[in-house]
Specification:
The chain is built from eight helices and six strands; from the N terminus they run αββαααββααβααβ. The strands form three sheets. Strands 1-4 form a two-stranded antiparallel ribbon. A two-stranded antiparallel sheet has the order 2-3. One of its GO terms (molecular function) is electron transfer activity.
Length: about 250
């Protein structure tokens, strides 16, 4: 077993076309971990919310359906005006701003939307990465419950803090860096920075997000996943023609 400092990956929700998470949640942390050879698991465990505004990702709360709205596309014109104003005012406003929809007159366009990603680095309960098969201090399982995010932050976060204080002391010396430390990374970044292909990063990203949304979303089969792997490989190859220069 090899123990290494824990690295928070921020998740990989933004690989999907529709997601509620912050824009930095692109899986970049997971990629860093993979590059240094550490194992990860449970990436197939992705939580979806059934009703996110199409193309935006903002959630239409379960409260809408609880008050009597119809799902599929969310239709709320059957609700009384006072119910919307008194109990669901923010969602009505959000829908108007992001979807351009008056909920009393039009249905809200929705899409199953990624809300949380359970997979990540294998760790022990101290938050240290471990190289061992099928062992992880996970509190989520295959689907996150609402309070478990708080559990992650408060309980496990405290445990990680105590472990760092136990094994590291203020002012202690760090291992010296190698003479060529970071040079490969800088060269890789410069290659991207000065690339002048024909495909903007936004187009490649959107293509990737649509592939993941279509082939690895709520309903998956062996066939859709295999097709998705082939399409993602092509999307990765297209990155050789990326354009970052005007």
């Amino acid at each position: 077993m090899q123990l290494l400092p824990f690295l928070a990956t921020r998740g990989y929700d933004r690989m999907y076309f529709s997601a509620t998470s912050a824009h930095p949640c692109t899986g970049v942390g997971n990629a860093m971990v993979s590059r240094v050879g550490l194992p990860q698991q449970d990436h197939e465990f992705v939580q979806f919310h059934p009703t996110g505004i199409y193309g935006i990702g903002c959630l239409i709360t379960e409260g809408f359906r609880g008050e009597g709205a119809f799902s599929g596309i969310v239709k709320v014109s059957n609700l009384w005006n006072d119910v919307l104003k008194e109990r669901l005012p923010r969602i009505s406003e959000t829908t108007a701003i992001f979807a351009g929809v008056d909920v009393m007159k039009e249905p809200i366009p929705v899409l199953p939307t990624v809300h949380y990603s359970m997979g990540g680095i294998l760790t022990n309960f101290h938050g240290e990465a471990v190289i061992v098969k099928d062992a992880c201090a996970s509190v989520h399982g295959a689907n996150k419950l609402g309070a478990n995010s708080l559990l992650d932050l408060v309980i496990l976060g405290r445990a990680y803090e105590n472990r760092v204080a136990e094994i590291h002391k203020p002012g202690e010396k760090q291992k010296p860096l190698e003479n060529d430390a970071g040079e490969k990374t800088i060269a890789w970044l410069n290659k991207l920075r000065y690339s002048n292909g024909s495909l903007p990063t936004s187009k490649i990203r959107l293509n990737m997000q649509r592939i993941i949304q279509n082939n690895a979303a709520v309903f998956r089969t062996q066939e859709t996943l295999e097709e998705g792997c082939q399409l993602i490989d092509k999307a990765w190859e297209s990155f050789n023609d990326v354009k970052l220069q005007d």
